[in-house]
Amino acid sequence: MKGEVPTGEHVLPIGKAALKREGKDATIITWSRMYYFAEQAAQMLEKEGIHVDLLDLRTLKPLDEEAILASVRKTNRAVVVEEGWSFCGVGAQIADIIQEQAFDDLDAPVERVTGLDVNRSYAAVLEKATEVSAERIVAGVKKVMYREEGN
After folding, report:
1. Are 131 and 85 in contact (CB under 8 A)?
2. pLDDT digits (tens, 9 = 90+) for 90-104
3. Would you say 138 and 45 are in contact if contact means Cβ atoms under 8 Å apart?
4. What is the phi-psi region of residue 131: left when phi exceeds 0, alpha when psi lies from -120 to 50, beta otherwise?
5. Which residues 6+ apart lie within 8 Å of 125 measured at CB?
C-alpha cells in the first residue's frame, strides 16, 4: 500500500486496537492489509446510509478483546475481515470470543469475510477473484443487517 509515512518517531501501543471510524449499524473488525479494503467498504456503506464502527486491531497477540466487545455491544453486529482462508484463521478465534462473551448482545450471527477456501492461483485474474474485496465486505455488513439482496 502506498501512503504517507510519519516523520520522526512513531510508536503504536502494543495490544491496543484503534477505532478508525465510528458508527452505529455494525462493527467491522480487521487488521493489517485488510484495513484498507474495510475502509473502502465503510465509505461505500456510508453512501447508503449505513454507518459502521471500523476497528483496526493492529496487533493480534496481545488481542484487544475489550475494544472488540465494546464495539460489538454498541452496534450489535460483527463482521470479521481477514485475508487468509476461513479454516482455523484468526477470524475464527475472534468470532468465538464474540459468540462466547457477547452472544446476548448480537442481533445477527457473526459474519466472516475471508479469502475463498480454494487453491491460490498464479493467474492474476483468478487470484483477485479469491481475495477479499470492499464489495465482499459490503455484502457481509448487509448480511448481518438483513439487507442482502433478496431480503
Report:
1. no
2. 999 999 999 999 999
3. yes
4. beta
5. none
